[in-house]
User: Fold these one by one.
Assistant:
Number 1:
Amino acid sequence: MAKDYYQILGISKDASVDDIKKAYRKLAMQHHPDQGGDAEKFKEINEAYQVLGDAQKRQQYDQFGSAGPGGGFGGGGFEGFSNMGGFSDLGDIFESFFGGGFSQQSQPQTGPVRGEDEEAVLTVDFMTAVFGGEEQVEIVLLDQCATCKGDGAAPGAKIVTCSTCSGTGQVRRNQRSIFGNVTTASVCHECHGKGKIPEKYCPDCAGHGRVKKSTKLKVKIPAGIDTGTTLKLQGKGHAGLRGGPHGDLYVRMNVRASRKFERHGYDIHTSLDIQIPQAVLGDEVEIETVHGVKKLVIPAGIESGKKIRLARSGVPKIGSSEVGDHIVTVRVLIPKKLSRKEQELFMELASEAKITLTPSKKKGLFS
Ligand SMILES: [Zn+2]
Ligand SMILES: [Zn+2]
């Protein structure tokens, strides 16, 4: 059976490009050999991403299916191999045809490599999300090793010829394919293609050139963010290798709920209890909004459940001068207990409205 790249990345077949990237980033970090992950698993994740992360290769892979070469090899003029024996592994076929281009380890990586991206979650208060602010996020990042300045050599260590590749920087392996034996050259894992290694690796980073470091970062939060908003902090991810640039940091926001306000997008919702005379005659009251206390005009004759909208009294929209609204849902309270005087007044109201009442015998209404 061929490898199911979707399963490897833990995503569904209709995953978006973004979903694929996110899943890859997360898994790659989790299984990175530098972080003690399994190298084979890491290779598999990379392989899956190099196919699914490339629109054309993904389409080809989707067409080909994960069950094996049954439907012909779409594109590239390789149709008609469905009856060829000996190829049960799609990965092998890809590797044979494309010279191992699907495996990251086979790509020469002697030069600088950009650091990986990282993700963090930052929980902020409701009002900070509305008006923005500055918060601190604490995160463990791979930083350049201070002892060896990132080159992986122990202080004063001699640089010697790599014994794994005899100084060529490459290791070769033979593979059977439909074209006969194919020799694939890949970059030496020991020296990363340089052909030379330090006699002794740096004791602090074991030669990796990077060490884990707990880092506190200030995050500027723009007004209007909400749970799920992701801020990109360029160059704040993991340090690069061999002088490569830092990766990026993606900070996903998690907003605490408010006891006073309910937020729907950029609108704020609250409810307001009013008395019958206010509903009938109208009134002007003060209500609390995220912008402070504001006047609310209750129009005469309002019914329970009606909403009153205070324009531009909600949440500022991210990167815009627009502001959402504050929406008040009015609830007219019906008194459950009446004083003698109130009872008389209601009776009078009824008679004025020419209503002949048969008062309820239930306790609490007309006692
Ligand atoms: Zn070091
Ligand atoms: Zn080597």
Number 2:
Amino acid sequence: MFSNRISRIQPSLTLQMTSKASELRSKGLEVINMSVGEPDFNTPKNIRNAGINAINDGKTKYTPGAGMPALRQAACDKMYRDNNLKYQPKEVIVSCGGKHSLYNACQVLFQSEDEVIIFTPYWVSFPDFISITGAKPIFVGTNPEKQFEPNFEELVSLITPRTKGLIINSPSNPTGGVWSDEAIVQTLKIAEKNNLWVFSDECYEQLTYDCKFKSIANYTDKTDKILTFQSCSKTYAMTGWRIGYTAGNSEVIKAMSKLQGQSTSCPNSIAQTAAIEALTGDQSAVKEMRNVFKNRRKLIIERLNSISGVKCAIPGGAFYVFPDFSSYIGKSLNGEIIKSATKIAMYLLEKKYVVSVPGDGFGSPNNIRFSYAASDKDINNAINALEEILNEIY
Ligand SMILES: Cc1ncc(COP(=O)(O)O)c(C=O)c1O
């Protein structure tokens, strides 16, 4: 019944875990949700008000397919202010979230016979964005001790004449890893030498804790094959508003606009108006949220690393930790041999109602992703529960 296209992709694992949490909650159970991929803060008031005013002022009609001119300009102003990136509105398209932007760009640039490089552990959606185009995702390993930077020997060895692009996601979901300048420069050199498209997914750009974020397109003068993806979702706690944007080569942007015009028409007009305020208005909430996340990172890392057998490097950004449970593999839990950390994550869910995301979905079966977009109380309770579960393993 279905096209080959749809059978090539998997349902989003993170969204599945979020539904699982809601299902348990609806049964009256006290769930601790450590699986969320969104800030646990409300959208800042100035942005909410801009949305309310947009409704009252009648900004409720279709907009140009690539987004309101004022928002495309606002995205340019924001990228110049925060990222030292100089783009014109014709080099920017606004889409229904960063996810939509990435999806559109893959549709425009990749097709069957192409190969696209993704670094493991990867965000769950990257392989599917590529597979649905008919292209093949190629997985390159990374070093957990060094912010999950690429294994460069492997990267070079996996490039073929078919390789068309690579996706960088620093800070990363699921690891929180932030690549060093050296790693970025080396990756860009390899990409340039092989004439690859570079997608830089910068949706966590405002969430780095140990150094100021620098956009990938800042590291080279040859930016014609670099596409920068940013989003209002994580930066302004606007996940449900669905506004993301892409900047880069104007021909690619034009092609993405054509596709968008024939699929979603345009992003939501009310959300676009609010996004102008988000990008150009008061930025103090961004800093406040970053400071809260930084403190929570410290808490969760200290708690995890105090458990013997759990290894967790300090991630430089985002709001995820990705501890390694390798030392438990092959041992026994609840009468069953642990084959991957999924067993631990599922047991934690069933017995303690703590929702996490097993590393399997990110290509890293010995890890579990915990989001610290959660209160200190939830973080402490979740790690207490994890410790109790791990104590049952022998
Ligand atoms: C790495 C990464 N890229 C992109 C996105 C897309 O976010 P949005 O579509 O809400 O902008 C997410 C969301 O979880 C993400 O984690």
Number 3:
Amino acid sequence: MELEFFGAAGEVTGSCHVVRVGGRQLLLDCGLIQGSREDEARNRDGFPFDPGEIDAVVLSHAHIDHSGRLPLLVREGFRGPIYAHNATRDLCGIMLEDSASLQERDAEYANRKYPNKPPLEPLYTVEDARRVQRMIEGNHYNEKREILSGVTIRFQDAGHIIGSTSVEVWLEENGVSRKLVFSGDLGQYDTPILNDPAVMGEADLVLMESTYGGRRHRERSLTYQEIGEIISEAEAGRGNILIPAFAVGRSQEVLYTLGRNYDEWGMNRWHVFLDSPMAIEASKVYWEYPHLYDDEATKFRRNLHEMPRLKNLHLTASTEESMVINKVRSGAIIIAGSGMCTGGRIRHHLVHNIERRECHVIIVGYQAPHTLGRRLVDGEAEVKIKGKWLQVNARIHTVGGLSAHGDENDLLRWYRGFDNRPPVWLVHGESSAARAMEQKLQNEGGARARVARAGERIDLAGEL
Ligand SMILES: [Zn+2]
């Protein structure tokens, strides 16, 4: 009985861990490595195990850094099944296909650009992504399910995006039983739309994310106040506001927040563009699972008979509709992907707006090192977009309070939900963040915490 850390150990993306029990192998997540071109090239390195010998995958949530290598796993011989929450299954249908078409386009581009180099195969194709989709078995929260002999799981709400889970895993082998809890990505407490992360009770070992170890989010009310101020400033300066946002989670939260503050922020004087086919599709999934909302969103929805859809919201799915936005010089709030500005339509909007002093960029999510989003956050005076160097004259605002991830106090609060004080292995954090969280858990949580290293194996049957 053992656990091996494979991805998102000492880094944030590429979440993937292997559990071995009674001759069976189970993967927890199978995420894509995201970041710089060099980082992403590591997705091609292959798995350190035979995908054909993996008996099942348990997927914590739909974000690509947790699900994005599933099509590759299938391409290399994995035959299913994949267990996830129902909403995660629906979101994966959207996200993995998008990821696959991006891979196909990248390969096509590289082959056109370098005709003399050996042709580059896409990492995986849309067909691979569709095969993954057929293998996903949807689950509800809070239902125990035996998935392999000696392996029982239960999904609990992680409050991170719709359908996100922390997973309880009960393992049994030769009369030894262990309970492992995999946190997945944990949301903030009191986050809009979603419920708080569930309380887990007990565990023998905890595998926990640490994205915001050592960091505190701003109080949400201050964040709202700041967004309100940015909106008035942009209105006075007659500029636009760009919000790079992940299609799933951030986009819906931003829309909800604009709706919730509609009168206060004078939203009737703005046009809001959700300029991302994927975010539009993902929003529909959010609207289809109202029973997963928290009390506030449920009440809000009941009064409006649906999720707040802004009166002046434009869902611009087609390229033509998106191009029209380029002509808008003021009064537009543009929400577009990708969340870290590494691709997608946000780059077009940055080209059109970033050199204009009267425009504003609101960063609402985590920005990995080396990404364009991170360069903006770090205050670089010039950035290269679509082959052109552009002056950063627009105002860049980083409003931490809207993060989909809990901060270190949220993580500690989640850990304190355990009745016993189980040992913790920290994953899914840059090493400084993971180390800070290790200290915090030890000093304030009374935990034996340590940072997981890629390739490290833990004997689960032994002393933990
Ligand atoms: Zn996530």
